[in-house]
Amino acid sequence: MNLRKTKLKEKLLEKLEETLKAVLPVLAIVLVLCFTVAPVEPGIMLAFLLGAVLLIVGMMFFTLGADMAMTPIGENVGTGMTKTRKLWLMVALTFILGFIVTMAEPDLQVLAEQVPSVPNIVLVLSVAAGVGIFLVSALLRMLYRVSLSHMLIVLYAAVFLLAYLAPGDYIAVAFDAGGVTTGPMTVPFIMAFGIGISAIRSDERAEDDSFGLVALSSVGPILSVLALSLIYRPESAEYVPARIPDIGDSVELWKLFAGELPEYMKEMAISLLPIIFFFSVFQFVFRQVPKRMLIRTGVGMIYTYVGLVLFLTGVNVGFMPAGNYMGQVLAGQPYKWLIVPAGMLIGFFIVRAEPAVFVLTRQVEDITSGAISAGAMGLSLSIGVAVSLGLAMVRVLTGISVFWFVIPGYAAALLLSFFVPKIFTAIAFDSGGVASGPMTATFLLPFAIGVCTNIGGNVVTDAFGVVAMVAMTPLITIQTLGLVYELRSGYLERRDAKRAEAVFEQLPDDEIIEL
């Protein structure tokens, strides 16, 4: 028992350290801006700091809970359903799983809160359906061994065709939805699900094909939101500015947070109950998980629930309004272009602190046998995200259409897929949502909205798209590194062959005959 408590304590401290690394750089940059060029009211500053504390504690419990509950559920369900060898059952279970897990994704909840005119539940259900459908397509790809590159080309061609037909107010939101969906809830689950399914195959490509599930699940939300735009026509698409809290003292501050807490407790209970019900039925039918693991999964679910409630309360009540307000303050200054380097600086540190990015960099280092180091990979991603956020802030200030960035970006990514090892393409498209972690949706997007509101721009078309820009970066960065690795490997092989040939030519005839 004591050993178990010690391990749990170590895990909690590990998750706390990961969360602090992600949040503290943003806090430091915000505080520097607040005390220099972007003064904010004391009440808003206190709400921001309390929101940050709740966000840190919430993410700590949530990520621990996801590791304890969602990852084992994904792997066991993937393994269990493939054992049935019944395609219709596998398709049905995969869709249901993708749907209900997406409903509980915190980053999606945060995005839905900020999208004007479309009710939260309509957007969340639409995105969840998209993930469910495309998780099924990822399953079929694995079972029938379809090329990921070919599927991505067809799907992104459909994306840009639908985007051409869709109203402009939906395009940036659709691409943002693809970025936030692959968040801390869905990614561990889908990756574990893929490992569980790949266990049914014993060929040499099985491990490579276990990548790509997140990539296809990211396309689903984009297509589903664009399809929604052709069906659902709201009466008004005007953005309603976020309410900036007016706080007079510490008691009012507490009341502000305590008043919203019951609402998020109810929302998260509704989001998580379908997952609990589904897994209970699955366990009753398949008896896949031993009793000890069931207890661990149950405890993990409790941690997940507590973490989600604290995270969303901190984000929606304290963090987002402060980000929005700071954007407005900076945009009101004579040097509003300062938001470009500020966004780049935040982006550089955010992506380096993401736990999923750390896992990704180690993964690439292992695949390339050290030819591409984790340090070089991390630095490349940081620079890429910093540049993409700088361009996103330029978009906010100038009103340039998101199409001018996403079309060439995705075209370059798809073109690279023909020249790099397939495993790099799968990892690159899988990691599109990895870079756009919680900080992007909870601070940078509200920050961009605040700037856009102040300068009189169109929030829906100009501010939204920040998450999409960040999510697009790894697609190009990782595949470019893959291309470097491929060229370097070819060069080394040719060099070694020439050296061997030169040595061989210098040998006496009798030694050559003996060889």
UniProtKB/TrEMBL annotation:
<feature type="transmembrane region" description="Helical">
    <location>
        <begin position="181"/>
        <end position="200"/>
    </location>
</feature>
<keyword id="KW-0472">Membrane</keyword>
<keyword id="KW-0812">Transmembrane</keyword>
<feature type="transmembrane region" description="Helical">
    <location>
        <begin position="20"/>
        <end position="38"/>
    </location>
</feature>
<feature type="transmembrane region" description="Helical">
    <location>
        <begin position="212"/>
        <end position="232"/>
    </location>
</feature>
<feature type="transmembrane region" description="Helical">
    <location>
        <begin position="432"/>
        <end position="457"/>
    </location>
</feature>
<feature type="transmembrane region" description="Helical">
    <location>
        <begin position="118"/>
        <end position="140"/>
    </location>
</feature>
<keyword id="KW-1133">Transmembrane helix</keyword>
<dbReference type="Pfam" id="PF07556">
    <property type="entry name" value="DUF1538"/>
</dbReference>
<dbReference type="InterPro" id="IPR011435">
    <property type="entry name" value="UmpAB"/>
</dbReference>
<feature type="transmembrane region" description="Helical">
    <location>
        <begin position="339"/>
        <end position="360"/>
    </location>
</feature>
<protein>
    <submittedName>
        <fullName>DUF1538 domain-containing protein</fullName>
    </submittedName>
</protein>
<feature type="transmembrane region" description="Helical">
    <location>
        <begin position="400"/>
        <end position="420"/>
    </location>
</feature>
<feature type="transmembrane region" description="Helical">
    <location>
        <begin position="463"/>
        <end position="485"/>
    </location>
</feature>
<feature type="transmembrane region" description="Helical">
    <location>
        <begin position="298"/>
        <end position="319"/>
    </location>
</feature>
<feature type="transmembrane region" description="Helical">
    <location>
        <begin position="87"/>
        <end position="106"/>
    </location>
</feature>
<feature type="transmembrane region" description="Helical">
    <location>
        <begin position="268"/>
        <end position="286"/>
    </location>
</feature>
<feature type="transmembrane region" description="Helical">
    <location>
        <begin position="372"/>
        <end position="394"/>
    </location>
</feature>
<feature type="transmembrane region" description="Helical">
    <location>
        <begin position="152"/>
        <end position="175"/>
    </location>
</feature>
<feature type="transmembrane region" description="Helical">
    <location>
        <begin position="44"/>
        <end position="66"/>
    </location>
</feature>
